[in-house]
Design brief:
Blueprint lengths: L14 H11 L5 H8 L3 H13 L3 E7 L6 E6 L1 H4 L5 H16 L2 H16 L11 H14 L4 E6 L2 E6 L5 H4 L6 H12 L2 E4 L9 E6 L5 H11 L5 H10 L3 H9 L1
Antiparallel strand pairs: 1-2, 3-4, 4-6, 5-6
Length: 255
Amino acid sequence: MAGKVKKRTGPRFGSRRLEVVDLLRRGIRTVAEMARHLHLTDNAVRSHLSLLERRGLVRRSGLEKGVSRPHVVFQLTSETTELFPHAYDAALRDLIAVMKRRLQADIVTQLLRLTGANLARRFPSGEKKESVLKRTRSAVRILNRLGGSARLHREQGILTIHSSSCPLSAVVREHPETCALVEKFLSHLCGTRVEETCARGKAPQCHFQLQERKRTKRSVLKTRQILRLPTTRRSESKVYSTLGEPDRFLRTRWS
């Protein structure tokens, strides 16, 4: 009597590669990270990535600092990204087109910035006492979960965020002002002013520079004059301590 054939319960052919693609879409971009999520060996993940590379679906975008050695960073090609359904892209493109026909350009930009600020409130931005660097690292992780491939750099003492792929690339190509939405989104998450200098074109790339504002004695003196505060040295320490908390300052000044 022939033995029973054991029913195969593992993944169907190709399903693992789809899972690899899905992880790349979610911002999981190194072999080690994918291996942990898929419960596979590093060599098994490399095998899937190698096949996807040969088919032009995945490419190497750089290196990431590791504990003992750098890790290769992978990302989806623009052709692969276009394969996935993006009904929200088409809806957003048409919505912005209608806004541009009906409203003035500055009003459209203001609405996009307001949208970015509202979107940022959906994500944890850390405590106000946290450093800008710590909040920016968190913002980069959030941007990657939304479809970016962002990295944090420090160029000549200035923090910059660079992403080789834009999470709103399908919209930005037609409506470049959409970058204002992401700019305000990152500004709220990082807790400081952010300025975008993105590269737009067939394959848009994000580039944001953080404007870390430092309050000087001159700016404090100007604030004292505007608010008609005493100009003695004793009041200077009070101004320094209250400028970061305008609500509390107003309560103590005019309550």
